[in-house]
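Fill in residues.
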């Protein structure tokens, strides 16, 4: 039985992955690749700075288009 709890930001990121056209297998493969590439040894929650940086980058791109 799974009792997973996600933040609003995490749900938003999952939705973005879904509408990007990636299927479940591709998303899981991407996460596995990230695990292999993560040589810093930091816990995954520490990688939230990366997600925030990507989100800020997306926001900047859309604001420049306006």
């Amino acid at each position: 039985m799974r009792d997973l709890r996600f933040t609003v930001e995490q749900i938003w990121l999952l939705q973005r992955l879904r509408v990007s056209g990636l299927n479940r297998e591709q998303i899981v493969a991407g996460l596995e690749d990230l695990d292999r590439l993560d040589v810093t040894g930091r816990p995954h929650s520490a990688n939230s700075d990366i997600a925030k940086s990507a989100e800020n980058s997306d926001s900047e791109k859309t604001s420049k288009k306006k």
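Residues 48-65 form the longest helix (18 residues).
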